[in-house]
Write a structure and sequence with these properties.
This protein is an alpha+beta fold. Helices cover 41% and strands 19% of the residues. The protein has 14 helices and twelve strands. The protein has helices at 54-57, 59-63, 66-69, 74-80, 88-99, 118-126, 139-151, 165-178, 201-213, 219-234, 236-239, 245-253, 287-306, 310-320; strands spanning 8-15, 18-31, 36-40, 46-47, 187-189, 195-197, 199-200, 258-261, 266-271, 276-282, 321-325, 331-337. The strands form three sheets. Strands 1, 2, 3, 8, 9, 10, 11 and 12 form an eight-stranded antiparallel β-sheet that branches. Strands 4-7 form a two-stranded antiparallel ribbon. The protein has a two-stranded antiparallel ribbon with strand order 5-6. The radius of gyration is 19 Å and the shape is globular. The model has no long low-confidence stretch (mean pLDDT 96).
Length: 341
């Protein structure tokens, strides 16, 4: 195990033959028993996990039986774990989740932004349509909470409030999975107005080692996490979308790897067969650095059981060193992983 204090070098950006920029941060690999396998930087320091924990928030939707009673599809469950592009398929899936409990877009309390995938935003504008909360990258998570509330006979209004019954229930799951208290002291507010709780980076990785392997979970919770992983593996497009790292990698590896990007350069992953959880936080909040660093870690620690074919190796080769091109398509440099593993 390599251990450092503070921050370490995660990625470098080159222009020509020179390194133009460097991204510092922290990263950790943890096994299902909570032992640190490898680390870089201060991994005991707390970070806001942001959208990386959406799959943990969706556990109660499945474990409670609500997903089955409501007939939610695997696409819907994948969307509940998503930070999506706001493409047409994403918006339609969110609307169908709400329709399953007799609700519509007005029930969403996530706010509105234009699709983050520019072609989708342009298509809306060209059709003289406006964006709505269905296009919010968090609409699937919010629709999932509304579904859970309605199934449980709880009024969903105000479900984003930390004191709301449904919010308390899913927060209890977060605390249990990360084995970290979630209280007023470590609570912030996310971009979609949901609470987000700062936890040690090591605890975040451990939570996903458990999410991926089922180790230390009740049989019902382990079944729920497996179902969510399988739903995401079957529909990786729903988790992110066109051109996105999460979708690209999971589309290739299916159930062998679970990956989720969050805001401000936070990223998690799980390798179920290896029983490992991964967590990264870039100091400057750059997602591009988290991507190349995560690919380097997954490639190294996944071993032959993860990378079975030339295509498997090629996916990581392409994502741990990404080509940078200018507006004319000319190659000007690259962003590459710079971890010492």
């Amino acid at each position: 195990m390599t251990a450092h204090t503070g921050s370490g070098l995660l990625a470098e950006v080159t222009r020509g033959k020179q390194v133009e920029s460097r991204h510092l941060g922290r990263a950790v690999v943890v096994d299902a028993d909570g032992s640190v396998v490898w680390s870089c930087g201060d991994v005991d320091a707390a970070v806001f996990p942001r959208s990386t924990v959406k799959s943990l928030l969706a556990i109660e939707l499945v474990e409670s039986g609500a997903a089955d009673r409501l007939g939610l599809s695997d696409e819907a469950l994948a969307l509940a774990c998503a930070s999506h592009n706001g493409e047409e398929a994403h918006a339609k899936a969110a609307a169908s989740m709400l329709a399953a409990v007799g609700r519509d877009v007005a029930a969403l309390e996530c706010g509105t932004h234009w699709p983050t995938y520019e072609p989708a935003a342009r298509a809306l504008a060209a059709a003289h349509q406006s964006a709505c909360p269905l296009h919010n990258n968090c609409s699937g998570k919010h629709a999932g909470l509304i579904c859970l509330a309605c199934d449980q006979g709880v009024d969903p209004v105000g479900y984003i409030d930390p004191a709301h019954e449904i919010q308390r229930r899913v927060t209890d799951v977060l605390a249990s999975m990360t084995q970290t208290p979630h209280t007023d002291a470590n609570r912030g507010t996310d971009g979609c107005s949901m609470p987000t709780y700062a936890v040690p980076l090591k605890a975040l990785a451990h939570g996903f080692a458990r999410f991926g392997s089922g180790v230390g979970l009740s049989s019902e919770r382990a079944k729920a996490t497996q179902r969510l992983r399988e739903a995401v593996a079957a529909h990786p497009f729903m988790v992110a979308g066109t051109g996105r790292y999460d979708t690209t990698v999971m589309n290739n590896f299916e159930t062998r790897a679970f990956i989720k990007m969050g805001a401000e350069g936070v990223m998690i992953a799980a390798l179920p067969e290896q029983g490992l959880g991964f967590a990264i936080k870039t100091d400057d909040g750059a997602n591009r650095a988290a991507e190349v660093a995560m690919s380097a870690l997954l490639h190294h620690f996944g071993g032959e059981s993860l990378c079975r074919t030339a295509k498997d190796h090629a996916i990581f080769a392409e994502t741990k060193t990404q080509t940078l091109r200018n507006w004319q398509g000319v190659t000007v440099g690259e962003i590459r992983a710079a971890l010492t593993i």
